[in-house]
């Protein structure tokens, strides 16, 4: 098939949707598909240089793997008229299908991307909803926000969701034959730099071999429970645990401006609790350095306020690295998640319970080893080859097998 992946962000932009699109494009190309990424110009705060020209096949310098897809940085704005440029590329490259990677923040929270052109003037469009967050339209828009998201789902020729919660919500809106549940995978492979030494990596952050190093991966925002994380660290230190926290990766990302205000609140809380010397930041860095940081940790702590979900790329990265994970109970039952076997679960928004769970792992080596083994086993279900094959099959079905 000739597949167009439409995304509001793409490496070297910082963002989970862009990273997902990159990995999916590579995996689809490895299966023999001709993949074209249709995206916007480089953001001003992108950390790597990538030639912004249609047909550029070079990888972003921050990613060491060879690029096998064509990147079209053709959409200058995701405002009204954005579909005109997308369809121009679709005609130019004779694309069989367009797969829109949807997350409102990646498109500047503008509603224009929701308004698909009429069916007669475009190839089939499949929308992958990375979350169902509604876009900002104007003050007091209220229910209109959900209506434009629902309109996009209903007008699409097919819909992919990445988690059970969103599937439950959309199965009432569109026929099941047009809906697929395909989870995401880890954006960070467990491949540290050559000659990696775990003790040396920990020493780099002032952490000794007998200290407890907590790990957090991902951007800071309201939904990820950063405040509970910092307060749990403070409780551990008050209880005499030699605990440190390594914040792995970028702080706020490229797309969502609300992350910056939340990060400032976390900085204030760290200072208020006197934890500045115990919280360490890697900053936005290359995948090997991220892998090195994750492998250096003893426990990955992911206190999502909306519960653990397989739509979280940060969770998949920690699973892929075989980390002992302490996280929050899912909003809906997830059969794959087994408390005490592949994760340790606590209630959301409960810093005390979070600290107690971390202490359990710290004081029970057998529990930690069991959680690490369980994480590695669970990660095997989310390989990029498997994700690409399921995606390609659904795209082909949506085109009626003409791709």
CATH class of the largest domain: Alpha Beta
**Helix proportion of residues, in percent?**
25-40%
Q: What is the strand arrangement across the widest sheet?
A: 3-2-1-4-5-6-7
Task: Give the percentage of residues in beta strands.
Answer: 15-25%
Multimerization state: single chain
Order of helices and strands: EHEEHEEHEHEHEHEHEHEHEEHHH
Q: How many domains in all?
A: 2
Can you tell me the CATH architecture of the largest domain? Answer: 3-Layer(aba) Sandwich
- Identify the CATH homologous superfamily of the largest domain: Glycogen Phosphorylase B
Apparent shape: elongated
- The CATH topology of the largest domain, please? Rossmann fold
Total DSSP helices: 12
Please state the structural category. alpha/beta
Radius of gyration: 21 Å
**Unreliable sequence segments:** 46-66
Give a quick account of the main beta sheet: strands, pairing sense, barrel closure: 7 strands, parallel
User: Would you report the number of β strands?
Assistant: 13
Average residue pLDDT: 89
State the separation between the terminal residues, measured CA to CA: 5 Å
């Amino acid at each position: 098939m000739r597949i167009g992946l439409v995304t509001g962000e793409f490496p070297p932009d910082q963002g989970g949707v862009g990273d997902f699109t990159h990995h999916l494009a590579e995996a689809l190309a490895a299966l023999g598909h001709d993949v074209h990424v249709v995206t916007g110009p480089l953001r001003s705060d992108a950390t790597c240089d990538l030639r912004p020209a249609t047909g550029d096949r070079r990888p972003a310098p921050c990613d060491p793997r060879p690029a096998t897809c064509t990147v079209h940085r053709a959409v200058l704005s995701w405002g009204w008229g954005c579909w005109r440029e997308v369809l121009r590329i679709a005609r130019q490259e004779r694309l069989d299908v367009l797969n829109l990677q949807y997350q409102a923040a990646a498109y500047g929270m503008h509603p224009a991307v929701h308004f698909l052109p009429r069916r007669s003037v475009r190839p089939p469009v499949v929308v992958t909803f990375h979350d169902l967050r509604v876009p900002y339209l104007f003050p007091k828009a209220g229910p209109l926000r959900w209506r434009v998201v629902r309109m996009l789902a209903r007008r699409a020729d097919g819909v992919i969701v990445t988690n059970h919660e969103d599937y439950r919500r959309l199965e009432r809106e569109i026929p099941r034959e047009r809906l697929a549940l395909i989870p995401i995978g880890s954006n960070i492979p467990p491949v540290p730099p050559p000659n990696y030494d775990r003790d040396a990596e920990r020493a780099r952050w002032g952490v000794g071999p007998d200290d407890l190093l907590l790990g957090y991966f991902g951007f800071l925002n309201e939904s990820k429970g950063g405040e509970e994380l910092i307060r749990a660290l403070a409780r551990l230190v008050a209880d005499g645990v030699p605990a440190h926290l390594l914040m792995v990766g970028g702080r706020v990302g490229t797309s969502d401006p609300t992350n910056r205000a939340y990060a400032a609140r976390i900085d204030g809380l760290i200072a208020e609790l006197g934890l500045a010397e115990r919280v360490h930041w890697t900053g936005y860095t290359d995948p090997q350095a991220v892998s090195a940081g994750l492998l250096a940790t003893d426990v990955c702590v992911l206190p999502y306020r909306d519960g653990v979900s397989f739509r979280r790329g940060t969770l998949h990265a920690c699973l892929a690295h075989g980390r002992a994970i302490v996280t929050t109970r899912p909003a809906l039952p997830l059969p794959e998640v087994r408390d005490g076997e592949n994760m340790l679960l606590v209630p959301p928004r409960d810093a005390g319970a979070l600290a107690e769970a971390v202490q359990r792992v710290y004081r029970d080596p057998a529990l930690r080893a069991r959680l690490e083994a369980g994480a590695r086993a669970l990660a095997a279900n989310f390989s990029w080859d498997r994700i690409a094959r399921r995606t390609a099959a659904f795209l082909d079905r949506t085109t009626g097998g003409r791709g």
